[in-house]
């Protein structure tokens, strides 16, 4: 959301895509990696799309899962400027105004997280109630106690 006059404008939207395609104004997590979410069974899970790849990747159940149909998080506000920021967090905590990517099967929010692994930017999830964030990397779901969370930047 971005404050516009006396109101607020919804400035982030999930845009359906697939097969490596990216719509205009994607949220760039760094190094061209964009924030996505995709389905695995009944779950919708945040993850990453790496430049030049045709599938996205999501962390789930200890593994990294590919997804060829996904939604890309994009900035869709009009004349509001950058409406988000990445804020450091740790041990499963999330800052105020964190972006919710979806709701897990246990009805807990899943938030968008990022970290660095072996020099690569990786996007994953913070599952409320857990003590770490989880990232898809090297075929595994990798937990990290320190990470950054995507938050609405309230002007």
TrEMBL record:
InterPro entries: DM9_repeat. This is Natterin-4. It comes from Fasciolopsis buskii.
């Amino acid at each position: 959301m971005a404050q516009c006059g006396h109101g607020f404008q919804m400035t982030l939207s999930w845009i359906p895509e697939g097969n490596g395609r990216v719509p205009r104004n994607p949220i760039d997590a760094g190094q061209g990696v964009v924030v996505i979410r995709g389905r695995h069974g009944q779950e919708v899970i945040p993850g990453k799309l790496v430049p030049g790849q045709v599938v996205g990747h999501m962390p789930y159940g200890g593994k990294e899962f590919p997804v060829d149909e996904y939604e890309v998080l994009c900035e869709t506000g009009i004349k509001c400027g950058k409406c988000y920021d990445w804020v450091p967090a740790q041990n499963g905590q999330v800052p105020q105004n964190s972006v919710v990517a979806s709701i897990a099967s246990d009805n807990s929010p899943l938030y968008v997280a990022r970290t660095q692994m072996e020099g690569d930017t990786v996007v994953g999830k913070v599952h409320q109630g857990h003590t770490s964030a989880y990232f898809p990397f090297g075929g595994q779901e990798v937990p990290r106690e320190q990470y950054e969370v995507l938050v609405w930047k309230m002007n």
